[in-house]
Amino acid sequence: MPAVVVLWVGAVLGLDTGASLTQQRLLGLGTWALLLLMLRRESTETRIQVAVVVAFASVVEYVFAGWLGVYVYRLHNVPWFVPPGHGLVYLGALAIGRSAWLHRNRWLVPLTLVAVGGWAVWGLFLSPTLDVLGAFWAVCLFGFSRWGLSRSVYCGAFLIVSYLEITGTSLGTWAWQQHDPLTGWIAIGNPPSGAAGGYAWFDAAALALTPRILARRRAPAPVALSADRA
After folding, report:
1. How many C-beta atoms surround the C-beta of residue 216 within 10 A?
2. How far apart are CA 139 and CA 222, in angstroms?
3. Reduced DSSP (H G I as helix, E B as strand, rest coil) percent helix, strand, coil of the chain, to 5
4. Which residue among 111, 147, 195, 206 is least enclosed by CB atoms within 10 Å?
């Protein structure tokens, strides 16, 4: 599954470099179709988790890209492939997180955190573009890796999200502003070093809301009283 996600993300971002709005929407429909196809083999719980992530990520996209302009897409919109793309990225991170290969090689999680920390330090002190936001997200990722419930998933998220961000910004699919538009003083790298920290928040929302949604789905429907028993 992670290989499918990586290949599809690379293909879509590559095709988007010269795509018209109509072509971009077709890429979006194809991404939705792939996400739904991949979810067919997943449990109800995983499907709900992905739905929660897509919902939260879509709100973030339309607020921070569509409204505030913290980062700007090539056609100054939120491409149709972005919301389902978040679902694919999360599915890929889940697949890496629950793989036997990762659990046999327990050193991969600490190594991932070293990579996160190294990139954040580079963004703060060595990069030509100061990256304060990336360092903040890196701290979030460290915190979730210490106290969260999905350490291995965060490892997968870092791998896939880093690939996504580096590829997308290199191809010009989107570009991050040098400073956030709200305060004007929070410096941002292009891309931010700890962008995967955002997925830790998405995962936290999914883990918090999924049991409640499942409970509501499984709750017995109220029995209506007949007229003679009322």
Report:
1. 8
2. 46
3. 70, 5, 30
4. 147
The CA–CA distances, whole Å, from 216 to 37, 43, 54, 209 equal: 25, 17, 20, 11
pLDDT, tens only, 102-129? 667 778 888 889 999 999 999 999 999 9
177: closest CA among 13, 65, 63?
65
Q: Global pTM?
A: 0.90
Which sequence spans correspond to the domains of the chain? 2-214
Cα–Cα distances in angstroms (integers) from residue 56 to residues 9, 60, 160, in the given order: 20, 6, 18
Q: Give me the count of residues in the chain.
A: 230
The SS3 of residue 230 is: coil
Helices (H) and strands (E) in the chain, counts: 9, 2
| Average pLDDT for 81-96 | 94
Question: What is the rounded distance in angstroms from the CA atom of residue 57 to the CA atom of residue 83?
Answer: 7
Contact 179, 185 (CB under 8 A): yes
DSSP letter, residue 221: P
Count of CA atoms in the C-beta half-sphere (13 A) of 113: 15
